[in-house]
Amino acid sequence: MSSSSSSVSTTTTTTTTSTNSNKNDIHIESNGVFTMTEYKTLCVICDTLFSDDSEVALNEIESLLPKNSKSPDENNKEHQLNILKEYFKRKSSDLDVAGQFLKLIAATKSSSQISDLKTLLGLLSTTGAGIILTGQFSSFVNLPLKSRQQVLTMMKSSSNPIRRQAFKAIVPLVISIYYSVIISGETSNPNWDAVGYDTPSPPEQIPGEEKLSFIKITSETSLKADAVVIGSGAGGGVTAAILAEAGYKVIVLEKGSYISSNNMSWKESEAFPLLYEQAGTLTSDDLSINILAGSCLGGGTTVNWTASIRTPDIILEEWRKQCPNAFESSRFNRAMDSVSSRLNVNTIDTVLDGTGAHNKNNKILEQALRDLDADPQPIPRNTKNCDTSQCGNCSMGCRSKSKQSSMVTYLEDCCSKGGQIITNCQAEEITTTSSPSSGGGQTVHGVIGYVSTPDGLKYRIFIKAHIVVCSAGALHTPTLLLKSRIKNSNIGNNLYLHPVIPIIGEHTQPVDLWKGPPMTVISKKYQKIIPNNNLRGGKNTGSILETPNAHIGLSGSNCSFIWEDSFNFKKKFLNARNFSAFISICRDTVPGKIRLDKDGKSPKIQYKLSDRDWKSMMPSVEASLRALIKNGAVEASIPMNGFKPANQDTIEQYIKSIKSNGYKSNQTVILSAHQMGSCRMGSSRSNSVVNENGESWDVKRLFISDGSVLPTSVGVNPMITIYAISHIIANQIIQLYPLPNSSSTTTTIAATTSSNINILNDEINHSPTQIAYERDN
Ligand SMILES: Cc1cc2nc3c(=O)[nH]c(=O)nc-3n(C[C@H](O)[C@H](O)[C@H](O)COP(=O)(O)OP(=O)(O)OC[C@H]3O[C@@H](n4cnc5c(N)ncnc54)[C@H](O)[C@@H]3O)c2cc1C
Questions:
Q1: Which residue in 157, 603, 672, 764 has its CB near the most CB atoms, within 10 A?
Q2: Cα-to-chain-centroid distance, residue 553
Q3: What was the pLDDT predicted at 385?
Q4: What class of enzyme is it (predicted)?
Q5: What is the dihedral of CA 62, 64, 70, 75, to 10 degrees?
Q6: Which residues line ligand 1 (CB under 6 A)?
Q7: How far is the CA of 304 from the centre of ligand 1 (A)?
């Protein structure tokens, strides 16, 4: 699922329903966060998006039959007709889409985002005030269906950004839920038969030796370790493994859950809440960028698409201007060699027997690139014996463990050397102490976190540590530093997102872009990196072309631009199997920021796609659109509201129009799966958060080791770059703070414990600053 939160900011005074709530007005499924009145308003919106279209469909239904190619009995016309009739009859409320929507928002969004959604729902149920959004004096909920459909269509491409934002706050998520939700007691979504999406098989329960080692927390607990690593993704995984290998007693804290192969459901509505930040609904604060980021054991590496691309030399050259040691060519290349070897990066799984393991979507891109003389290259991937018959669910985890994620490589290495992991543990604060050894400056002291249990309990834990490594990713590392009141004005600045424009083709045959290895072909023809010496992110950078992995819910949410009424959307989406998608990934030059949300806890992602970066993506977008049509696509488009997909006759006019329209926030779907730079490494405290060793300028023995240290946008898929710089930082930690001899390490460590980690229950009530770390003495 993707997109949509809810932050339509408006200063209009309105009677939001929440203020007048009483007990009977509570929407129980959202835990009372929303009222029944708000729920009912949302129900009307959802039933506008998907209404009972059985009457309209009656005349056309026979002609739609051939497109419905999947059925238990292909020849049974009656059966297929019934599937279609049910599909066109099905309203959102038949699946309680509104209830699912509010439940998801209540569980994942910050209080300020929830309050924005309440304001929006209030406006749509109010006579008069709602005119700001709908252009109608009557309240939206009281309008007849046709008028409601017209209002929503008007809003999505309105010149008023607030209206576009309101559309974005609701519609993509409703579409995603309509095509992915599984109602209680069922095993699949009832729309799947009509659109030809197969129900994922349940995971096999394969008994196996557990190579990961977990600490189970069942009460308030105090622990002690040589190094705490916060976050278990690319940066956290390799850092934890290297420190454990060097003999450090390592604890890894991960706020997400451990989803083993046996528990990977591969159903979006179940998998995304367990694997992604905000269940895949994270956006920038104005909703204009949909952000996918992993939040589970292994972080982004558990859900990513395995493209393992080395840092371009020209980028390393740019970064060396500020950080000559960290990005020194031979050193960085050695680090990339080392991580590539551990992650089994190879092209054999991509170019099987020279015939290509490309799925249909990648074959379409490869052919398009050949036509464009755009040098299609196979993408190296971190896989081992990829079982291509199972592939395609990479974004919901790899059951066969072919994907060499941090979870099945470095975290296992870490645990084999005595490291331990605490999952569902959100680090809330890095504690510091002023130490004489740092001339009165701050030194790291430990980490306070909260562990959530499946039965809804929360336990506070405190871990006293010699070294703290923050590897919470480029969204959460700055958030945690800000929450910990670490003083450095660069924290959260320089956020790069690699903005992505999807380019969608519609073909006459199934493409099934959710099947097969997702990302196996790349073209760099449209990327021209001109480095910049002063960390300003380069100029005129262009974009690379690749392909995404998108299942039915995610595909649906990205198709909200074609929604004009319920019937026609449902009809169009019968062709979901025939859609192909390329992605143009931009090396962005104008960064955004991470700030603390009003709740003081969550990241507020402030990012506006610049005109310059939008324009730099246009050559690859334009070329892709033409190539799609040339190669037999019946339609091609980008998800831009207000522009109908182009066909052979209209393609040139279409390209002209989208170029002259330019970029407007919330008009075009812009995605991001790569977040970088928000606590960057640099040459001085005035331009960065950490030094070349990855150590904080402000707090001794606090390191950052993840995508947030990258000085600027890397311009290619960043996983290998992040692993490599984290590899370098981990080795710097060992150099700078080698383990003292064993006599001092054991001062407070109980020799009897079977675990390397010691539980210090007597310290649970101490405030962090009261405990001095023995090693320093
Ligand atoms: C769908 C998708 C596809 C991708 N495909 C590719 C690809 O093919 N190739 C590629 O190079 N890159 C890809 N990426 C990007 C790549 O996976 C990330 O850039 C990389 O994983 C980032 O590493 P990291 O260590 O910075 O953070 P992450 O891997 O995001 O890890 C951070 C971890 O920290 C945890 N955390 C956050 N805050 C806290 C806290 N307070 N306490 C405890 N834990 C916390 C998070 O839950 C998360 O698990 C993809 C990403 C996504 C989402």
A1: 603
A2: 15
A3: 84
A4: oxidoreductase
A5: 30
A6: 230-236, 253-256, 292-296, 299-301, 303-307, 395, 426-427, 471-474, 476, 480, 519, 673-674, 706-707, 717-719, 722
A7: 8
Query: With 50 as the cut, is the pLDDT of residue 609 above it?
Result: yes
Same domain, 470 and 519: no
Separation CA 682–CA 664 (nearest Å): 33
Looking at the domain assignment, is residue 172 inside a domain? yes
- Candidates 445, 476, 551, 674; catalytic one: 674
- Within this chain, do residues 483 and 504 fall inside the same structural domain, yes or no? no
Q: Are residues 514 and 453 in the same domain?
A: no
Q: Whose CA is nearest to atom 17 of ligand 1?
A: 300
If one residue of 1, 410, 461, 722 were mutated to test the ligand 1 pocket, choosing by the most ligand atoms within 8 A of its CB, it would be: 722
Q: Quick one: pLDDT at residue 533?
A: 65
61 vs 147, which has greater pLDDT?
147
pLDDT at position 631 over 70? yes
pLDDT tier at 159, thresholds 50, 70, 90: very high
pLDDT over threshold 60, residue 487: yes
Which domain, by its residues, includes 121? 17-52+90-181
pLDDT value, residue 69 = 52
Among protein residues, the one with the nearest Cα to ligand 1's atom 14 is 304
pLDDT at 129: 80
Which among 664, 665, 646, 666 is positioned nearest to 656, based on CA atoms? 646
Q: Please state, in angstroms and rounded to a whole number, the distance separating the CA atoms of residues 280 and 585.
A: 19
- Residues contacting 405, CB < 8 A, separation 6+: 298, 301, 302, 304, 382, 398
Q: For the chain, what is the domain count?
A: 3
Domain boundary among 624, 644, 672: 672
* Mean of all residue pLDDT scores within the chain: 89
Model confidence at 65, in pLDDT bands (50, 70, 90)? Answer: confident
Q: 493 and 605 in contact (C-beta within 8 Å)?
A: no
Q: How far is the CA of 234 from the centre of ligand 1 (A)?
A: 7
Q: How far apart are CA 275 and CA 257, in angstroms?
A: 8
Q: Residue 210: inside a domain, yes or no?
A: no
- Nearest C-alpha neighbor of 156 from the set 570, 637, 642, 566: 642
Q: Specify whether the CB–CB gap between 352 and 603 falls below 8 A.
A: no
Q: Residue 334 burial by CB count (10 A; 0-12/13-18/19+): exposed, middle or buried?
A: middle
Q: How far does residue 139's CA lie from ligand 1's centre (Å)?
A: 43
Question: What pLDDT was estimated at residue 85?
Answer: 95
Q: Are residues 456 and 591 in the same domain?
A: no
- Which region among 97-106, 491-500, 521-530, 686-695 has the lowest average model confidence (pLDDT)? 521-530
Query: Do residues 434 and 194 lie in contact, with contact meaning Cβ atoms separated by under 8 Å?
Result: no
**Is 510 in the same domain as 549?**
yes
Atom of ligand 1 nearest to the CA of 719: 11
Q: Which atom of ligand 1 is nearest to the CA of 720?
A: 11
- Tell me if 752 is assigned to some domain: no
Q: 468 with 522, same domain?
A: no
Instruction: Record the tokens describing residue 287, joined without a space.
Output: 């909703």
Q: CA–CA separation, 677 vs 681, rounded Å?
A: 8
Asked if 476 is an active-site residue, the reply is: no
Check if the beta carbon of residue 424 is closer than 8 Å to that of residue 256.
yes
The SS3 assignment for 139 reads coil
- Please indicate, yes or no, whether residues 476 and 534 belong to a single structural domain of this protein: no
Instruction: Please write down the long-range contacts of 14-19, taking CB distance under 8 Å and 24 or more positions apart.
Output: 14/119, 14/122, 14/123, 14/126, 14/129, 15/122, 15/126, 15/129, 16/118, 16/119, 16/121, 16/122, 17/41, 17/118, 17/121, 17/122, 17/125, 18/118, 18/122
What is the tens place of the pLDDT at every residue in 446-485? 999 999 998 999 999 999 999 999 999 999 999 999 999 9
How far does residue 9's CA lie from ligand 1's centre (Å)? 29
Is 759 part of a structural domain of the chain? no
User: Which atom belonging to ligand 1 lies closest to the Cα atom of 480?
Assistant: 41
Whether residue 692 is found in the same domain as residue 664: no
CB-CB contact of 427 with 449 (8 Å): yes
pLDDT band at 750 (very low <50, low <70, confident <90, very high): very low
